[in-house]
Amino acid sequence: MAEPDLQDIHDLLVETAMQAGEMITSAHPSTSTTDTKKNSSDLVTETDQAVENMVSSALKSRYPSYSFLGEETYHPGLHLTSAPTFVCDPIDGTTNFVHGYPYISISLAFVHNLRPLVGVVFNPFTAQIYHAIKGRGAYLTSTSLGKDDPAKMRQLPLRNPPEPLHGLDEALVAVEWGNERSGNNWDVKVGTFAALAGAKEGGGAMVHSLRSLGSAALNLCGVAAGGLDAYWEGGCWAWDVAAGWVILEEAGGMMVGGNKGEWEPTIEGRRYLAVRGTEGGEQEQKNFIEEFWECVKGTLEYEL
Ligand code: LIP
Asked: Is 72 in the pocket of ligand 1 (CB under 6 A)?
């Protein structure tokens, strides 16, 4: 099989994401007519399904031999393989979408040999598209701006050089509640949130604050851009993180697992810690990660 043409794939994913954006912004979801999946906090709309359908047809018609993994057509037992694969979350932030909170994205990735190589994350409500190709840098393009506006396409991180990554007590950290609201993983999350945010006198790390904005892909892009210092989550899936992962790494960020010692995370690991780039480099990121893991109260455990 010929080597994948990453630039062509990138351009196709951008074009497809923009088409999806039109479907998303012209939809009229509502909380009362929305279906649920696993429980009442796990939502799906007709738009999620229609967008995934459109995306999978567009990608298959150009690359018929490549595999496809999408949130809405996933079933237990389906795994990423080493084959060239498109990974799609048609609406990352479905809860925000049905509430009319405009913090959502379509997240499209190309993964080969279980490594994300191209990532495109588009929020059609803010007209911002984050995009990256492995080895070629990460960018934020504002599609509402004219082509000659210098703010139209900016390389990530936005603050360059980035500030040093001091300890957790100077950090702004994104976390997510997810849709599992009882059991071990819930206890680990709630304990960890308290350990991160709590006052030093009570044994907490006292981060500047926690943010919980509702889209894993945009959280990863926020860390890539540098506005967030870190993002920790358990429970999300390959389609939530594959695109943001390559954008993060191309912006100098580092991805590890959500549990202590998980230096080699996998796309399907379902627990992640992303840390932004810093001039201090890898050692500074590793020190931050080790400090973070000390706050993780227990072990996150997920099945595929
Ligand atoms: C959601 C994530 C969110 C996470 C949820 C869920 P969806 O994706 O992006 O951050 O906490 O568990 O996975 O369901 O809106 O595509």
From this structure: no
